[in-house]
């Protein structure tokens, strides 16, 4: 259970990196604040004829290295502070993997599963229309996040394009292939998590086949990670979705999980497996824990009971700073979100490049380029950590902040 806010975590991580790298106090202060934040009302005609007004946000944290980039989240717990934190993490993430973007994030306070397709489409189009001055292929490029998908991206692209009077595929990434999406984008975050996991296991001298994995979350990222790591030979012993999880020390197969979810709408009750709560799942006996759901899952309240020796953060912000401290003391390696889950935005960058050039790459080419970037970024973060004697999260943040600070200093402060 969350004990602090995502924004407090993001600030504390930045402050720790800033102290370790002796960041200029002026630049530090600039980076502690989002560049701009927009709050909008999204009046939506519901199917019964009534009007519901949803609240939405779009935050640009930093644009020193290029247009801002980041997903749009549809979730009932969205707040401005959460969106600010997620936007800040996008800034560091893009810089860590060296793609020419700043950081942004958007969100609407809504439970998308309670809306009909028509309501979801009308709400998405009106939200897009409200944030229109904020977005554009050279300005800020949204993408999917929790609660949004490629269909939502298609509506955003269409709304923007209709207002411009011509097709603008580069305004959004994570689109369907038919309108300028990229091969490999849908699985890109999970694939990036897989590359980083393999690099981590290799670095730590662990055999893939002897690695027992628990994954929290079974959406686009968690589900994809389960499939890819199972394919690589890891033993998946625990998996959960929002409703709860399942555990089988002998191993779970992606086929059985998928089939059971299709049949019952959840994971619990899977034959041969034991039901566990989402809290219990994080404390299961395993070697590798992959939180792939939401922020604030690993806290000072449960960090002592985590059994894994490696944590790879597929979600954004799953570990609170106090838990990070406990893991460091306990010798548990945490591979941070801004490195581990950067595969999604990396392939978003490829999609944007392809859109702008009106050209398309094969899936093999996309995956190969992704692998090279993820492996290089892993090495860069490791080198930073070793040379400065800091944990991986601080190293990754230092790397990201350093690149942003360099761009900022080179451009100079306006006016
Ligand atoms: N929402 C994803 C993330 O948190 C992807 C963002 C993007 O592709 O712009 O990294």
Bound molecules: glutamic acid
CATH architecture of the largest domain: 3-Layer(aba) Sandwich
Query: What does the overall shape look like?
Result: globular
Task: Fill in the CATH topology of the largest domain.
Answer: Rossmann fold
What's the helix and strand layout?
Blueprint: H1 6-20, H2 25-32, E1 36-45, E2 51-62, E3 68-75, H3 80-96, E4 102-109, H4 117-131, E5 140-144, H5 150-164, H6 188-203, E6 212-216, H7 220-232, E7 235-241, E8 244-247, H8 254-264, E9 274-276, H9 278-282, E10 288-291, E11 310-312, H10 321-330, E12 333-335, H11 337-340, H12 343-357, H13 363-388, H14 392-411
Bound molecules: glutamic acid.
Glutamic acid binds at residues 69-71, 143, 145, 173, 316, 341, 344-345, 348.
Protein traits:
46% helix, 415 residues, globular, Rossmann fold, single chain, 5-stranded mixed beta sheet, binds glutamic acid, alpha/beta
Describe the 3D structure.
The chain has helices at 6-20, 25-32, 80-96, 117-131, 150-164, 188-203, 220-232, 254-264, 278-282, 321-330, 337-340, 343-357, 363-388, 392-411, and strands at residues 36-45, 51-62, 68-75, 102-109, 140-144, 212-216, 235-241, 244-247, 274-276, 288-291, 310-312, 333-335. It has two domains: 36-179, 3-Layer(aba) Sandwich (Rossmann fold), CATH 3.40.50; 188-340, NAD(P)-binding Rossmann-like Domain (Rossmann fold, 3-Layer(aba) Sandwich). α10 links the parallel β11 and β12 (333-335). It has 14 helices and twelve strands. A seven-stranded mixed beta sheet has the order 9-8-7-6-10-11-12. It has a five-stranded mixed beta sheet with strand order 1-2-4-3-5. Helices cover 46% and strands 17% of the residues. The chain is an alpha/beta fold.
């Amino acid at each position: 259970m969350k004990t602090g806010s995502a924004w407090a975590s993001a600030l504390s991580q930045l402050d720790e990196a800033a102290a370790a790298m002796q960041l200029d106090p002026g630049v530090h202060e600039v980076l502690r604040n989002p560049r701009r934040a927009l709050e909008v009302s999204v009046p939506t005609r519901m199917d019964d004829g009534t009007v519901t007004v949803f609240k939405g946000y779009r935050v640009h944290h930093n644009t020193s290295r290029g247009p801002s980039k980041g997903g749009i989240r549809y979730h009932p717990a969205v707040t401005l502070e959460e969106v600010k934190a997620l936007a800040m993490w996008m800034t560091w993430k893009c810089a860590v993997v060296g793609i020419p973007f700043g950081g942004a994030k958007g969100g609407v306070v809504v439970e998308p599963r309670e809306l009909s397709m028509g309501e979801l489409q009308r709400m998405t189009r009106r939200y897009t229309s409200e944030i229109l001055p904020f977005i554009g292929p050279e300005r800020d490029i949204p993408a999917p996040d929790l609660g949004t998908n490629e269909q939502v991206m298609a509506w955003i692209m269409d709304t923007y394009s209709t207002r411009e009077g011509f097709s603008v595929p580069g305004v959004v990434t994570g689109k369907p292939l038919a309108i300028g999406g990229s091969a490999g984008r849908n699985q890109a975050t999970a694939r990036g998590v897989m590359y980083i996991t393999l690099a981590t296991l290799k670095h730590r001298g662990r055999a893939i086949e002897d690695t027992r994995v628990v994954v929290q979350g079974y959406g686009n990222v968690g589900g994809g990670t389960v499939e890819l790591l199972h394919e690589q030979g890891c033993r998946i012993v625990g998996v959960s979705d929002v409703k709860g999880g399942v555990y089988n020390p002998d191993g779970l197969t992606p086929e059985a999980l998928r089939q059971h979810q299709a049949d019952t709408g959840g994971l619990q009750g899977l034959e041969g497996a034991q039901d566990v709560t989402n809290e219990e799942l994080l404390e299961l006996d395993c070697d590798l824990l992959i939180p792939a759901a939401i922020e604030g899952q690993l806290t000072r309240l449960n960090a002592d009971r985590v059994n894994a020796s490696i944590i790879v953060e597929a979600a954004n912000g799953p570990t609170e700073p106090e838990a990070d401290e406990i893991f460091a003391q306990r010798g548990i390696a945490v591979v941070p979100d801004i490195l581990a889950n950067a595969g999604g935005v990396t392939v978003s960058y490829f999609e944007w490049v392809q859109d702008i050039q009106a050209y398309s790459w094969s899936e093999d080419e996309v995956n190969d380029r992704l692998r090279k970037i993820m492996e290089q970024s892993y090495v860069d973060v490791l080198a930073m950590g070793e040379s400065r004697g800091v944990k991986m999260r601080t190293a990754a943040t230092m790397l990201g902040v350093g690149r942003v600070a360099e761009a900022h200093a080179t451009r100079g402060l306006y006016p």
